[in-house]
Amino acid sequence: MPSSSSSSTFVPIAPRPSPVRTTGLVPWARQNLFADWRSTLTTLFVAGLLLYALPGAANWALFQSVFRADADACQAARGIGACWGVVTEKYRIILFGRYPYDEQWRPLVATLLMVGGLVLSCIPFFWKPWLAAMWVAILAMFFALMGGGVLGLSPVRTDLWGGLPLTVMLATLSIFMAFPIAIVVALGRRSQLPAIRSACVIYIELIRGVPLISVLFMASFMFPLFMPQGVSVDVLVRVIAGITLFAAAYMAEIIRGGLQAIPKGQLEAADTLGLSYWQTQRKIVLPQALAMVVPSMMNNFISIFKDTSLVTIVSLYELTGALALALNSDVNWRPFKIEAYLFITLVYFAFCFSMSRYSLWVEKQLNASKAR
Length: 372
What we know:
The chain is an all-alpha fold. The chain has 15 helices and 1 strand, in the order αααααααααααααβαα.
């Protein structure tokens, strides 16, 4: 007969389902839309407004609208339905600006290459050392396609570049080049050397003290006055430099906020281990600081993407400028600018919303890594 002191096998109790459902549409609505009486009243009020406005908006945008490129039909539908025919008629000018009509396959392929590179760069599988080489190849192909003069492609001046390719290129290059500058400037502003710290402070405060439109004006019209006679820098290069310096100043302050949030004890521990200044920054400080400011940096990236619309002041017709160019050149379609602006609003929203969702995904991954 076995003794009572003999060990017994532990048998865990099988998990039981929660008595209240916590996932799905109904729990989400209960938590986010009907959590208390204030949320309930707000939800009902907004739902009432939507029920009142949506039928008329749908009737204008879809049921009574004109989709074919017929100016007479659009004139007949004014005040009743939208004229999406303006997009059908002018979409190539809106998307590619003044680029030669017969060569517009080149900016299309160039834009797809750059957008594809951005998408691949957001996937962890492609975070390999060869990613930098891939971007060098993408940029080389982009400028070869847009500028021509190689591989039998006819040359196209940079002042004819426009539309979506110009917007994507300006934003991408400015962000890529501004990021390392911002890190160096943020570290320099926290330096113990007065000369370096003062130079970084002057740069940040000078750039942040003026609007971007002033920076673009200076880069385009004032900078050539200081160049030696006979020396000229392409306006596109000057614009990219201006946006880059402007974005780097704001990003440097964002990164400096993350640097200040690092506990001093970690720096002291790094000194104890004998790490050099750059080893401490690269292995301990910057990874944590950059992770803390992901939302702010993404907000800055979105702002840069939208601020590219200001380059119209220097006669570079990006997406917004190309739209104005398309409508101003044809009086028959000029009355339907609202529909055209809604079209480019959708384009801007698609890019900015994608960046914001990716930022949320990065935050979730960082939070998961901290929880382990």
